[in-house]
Amino acid sequence: DAGVTQSPTHLIKTRGQQVTLRCSPKSGHDTVSWYQQALGQGPQFIFQYYEEEERQRGNFPDRFSGHQYPNYSSELNVNALLLGDSALYLCASSVKNRWGTDTQYFGPGTRLTVL
Amino acid sequence: AQKITQTQPGMFVQEKEAVTLDCTYDTSDPSYGLFWYKQPSSGEMIFLIYQGSYDQQNATEGRYSLNFQKARKSANLVISASQLGDSAMYFCAMREGWAAGNKLTFGGGTRVLVKP
């Protein structure tokens, strides 16, 4: 059973450019959440997608946008990159269990460097 | 105010000994879930253990156990019989509310280094 996969593994961009990160959820999962983890810090919630809609959003500017496809895979897009966007971007997938709660399982992350 | 606080930035533990990682949380929601994740240097966050706010017993998963003290709002992780492969960052996280799909809020993490 494949876990959460993310691509690419590493990415180097320059300021002002745009980037797209991709995530495939664990088999059977229908919800995808994205987190940004700056060096030396805990992950920060960016947004979550469910049924191809953005269901929740954290405190991130509109430069951060996303999409979810019918097969539940998801993309994170960041426009007008800033140096401060350099971070590890983590995707997590989940599905509601019989108790109505869930557990998020994370992928290996995409390390973005903005020069 | 910080919702999740991990006060130990780093700690050493001798192989085969037990180690306790501290986590305190802050929420006014009576329904919440607490999670611990392990992050090796590769970057992937690995789910370790979960405790629901209404669970009467402390959660256990193999060598991991969660010391849940609700009144003190603490959820410490205990790793028994430490192994070299346990060297990693450990994050405590909280989901406020019971519903699936609520975001996770993470603490700053504790780095554990297991000495042979």
Helix % of chain B is: under 10%
- DSSP helix count of chain A? 0
> What fraction strand of chain B?
over 45%
User: How many β-strand stretches of chain B?
Assistant: 12
Arithmetic mean pLDDT of chain B: 95
SS class of chain A: mainly beta
Beta-strand residue fraction of chain A: over 45%
The radius of gyration of chain A is: 14 Å
Biggest β-sheet strands, sense, barrel of chain B: 6 strands, mixed
Q: Compute the average pLDDT of chain A.
A: 95
Can you tag this structure with a few keywords?
heterodimer, A: 115 residues, mainly beta, 7-stranded mixed sheet, 0% helix, 50% strand, B: 116 residues, 6-stranded mixed sheet, 4-stranded antiparallel sheet, globular
Structure description:
The complex is a heterodimer of chains A (115) and B (116). Chain A is built from no helices and eleven strands. Chain A has strands at residues 5-7, 10-13, 19-24, 31-37, 44-50, 53-57, 64-68, 74-78, 87-94, 105-106, 110-114. In chain A, the strands form two sheets. In chain A, strands 2, 4, 5, 6, 9, 10 and 11 form a seven-stranded mixed β-sheet that branches. Chain A has a four-stranded antiparallel β-sheet with strand order 1-3-8-7, with no helix packed on it. Chain A starts with a strand and ends with a strand. By secondary structure, chain B is an all-beta fold. Chain B is 0% helix and 50% strand. Chain B is globular, with a radius of gyration of 14 Å. The model of chain B has no long low-confidence stretch (mean pLDDT 95). The A-B interface holds A 31, 33, 35, 41-45, 48, 50, 55-56, 58, 88, 90, 92, 94-97, 100-109, 111 and B 4, 33, 35, 37, 42-47, 50, 52, 91, 93, 95, 98-109.
